[in-house]
Amino acid sequence: MKEVQDQIRSCTVNMIRIKCPYCGERDHSEFAYGGDASIKYPALDASKDEWTKAIFFRENIRGFQKETWHHLNGCRMWLEVERCTLTHEIKSVKPCHPELQKIMASSK
Amino acid sequence: MTRFNAWNVFKNGLNGQTGWSRQWRDPEPKSDYDVIIVGGGLHGLATAYYLAKNHNINNIAVIEKGWIGGGNAGRNTTIVRSNYMVPGNHQFYEHSLKLWENLSHDLNYNVMFSQRAHVALFHSPGAKDANARRYNTMRLNGTDGELWNLDKLKKNIPHLNYNDARFPIMGAAVQPRAGNARHDSAVWGYARAADSLGVDIIQNCEVTGVKRLNGNIESLQTSKGNIKGKKIGFAVAGNTSRLWQMAELGNLPIESHKLQAFVTEAIKPFLDHVVVYGVGGAHFYISQSDKGSLVFGGDLDWYKSYAQRGNLPIVQDVAEAAMAILPSIGRLRLLRHWAGVMDMSMDGSFFICKTPISNLYLNAGWNYGGFKASPASGWYFADLIANEHPHKYIQHHHLERFAQGINLDERGAGPDPKLHG
Q1: Which of A38, A100, B37, B314 is deepest in the core (most CB within 10 A)?
Q2: pTM of this prediction exceeds 0.90
Q3: Does B145 contact A at CB distance below 8 Å?
């Protein structure tokens, strides 16, 4: 059995485990990937160039990046996750919504 | 290089196969080249070949960080088709298919191109209408395409799940000239043909830095020293953003995602066509290799990644899709399974274009579709590098199309790279 497990490991990466601040640690298959969380959308009347950059252009980091995940099959909270795109290691998880961040922090 | 022909096969049959020479040299890099192509995948090798063949440029290097064909050229499901609809894309992919049709003769290397038909199943009247529109558009543009009703489909592929599928099969949109090719043969064929025209193919040579001079690129710093190039082409899909940032050019409309593929144990002839199934969130494409293995794939892993290994939820998804339409393969064992890193672009179409640096040219953003595109990709990228002007088929495949609002969004999925499957 161990041999089979090793073989599977050699050609797959481990399930990403995301520590949802509300539900606890869960498999990533419970979550839906959102996208790059570092994008700052400009003001509505900003120039076309600024909007083009925000909507279409990405840094596409190979390493740790901030990204959003939606806990779709759980509490349905949107999370901001700091994850390495090469090893899939996760550094931090927090709610996207700043008010929820405050509430979560104060309830600890 | 010894040519492959009947006489040489006969002669070497008599002398114990001792008369063959190596297929391509293994040179050390020279100090400067007229053109350096970064990336020894199919696109890079094809570009070098057509630069030498069509444009008579011979002082060319292809530099590759690993071994040639070790990236996505060796990680795809080998499907070749041209069922595209958007202007520019359909002419481009149709030209690519035409190049595939004569590639074995052109390269003097058997790429095992097999026009076994690409059969895309549909499961609702709406999907039938959408396919009729797409395939009629293709026919108007000179590409072959037809709709098969259920009777014809059953006659051709009797062992699909016609009985109790969750989404009953209603028929299929078919491109008869589409099919498969052998991916490694295409890599080796292009490498061998390019090498015989004087192209230096330099493996284990990773670009570590880009040296700029007066706004141009003067040289590339590599693990085999500095190499000067008058013109530089990037063809490194999967890692385009990294090189782009080495050249200090900022962000690209690209994200890197990984896509898995699977091979089963070999069985007797079972599936004569490429079969594609996509409905209700499932996405599945399968064909049988000449060795007898079933080769298939599905969706991306849905999150951004540079890891060339897949994750298990997609294995399950793909297996479920396989069982939905081909329940007879349920007892087969998977032999191998891997992932490649895709350049997923913001509208699902590719880039062959000039860049803000006057002697740098970009070939990137191939999404799921790089393998079939490689001959035309090399053809038009070489044309752009040699003539400094994009051919009309690729005139909109540039980075400014997003600012100009002329996105080439074949699926109409919007600016989310992971949705352009």
Answers
A1: B37
A2: yes
A3: no
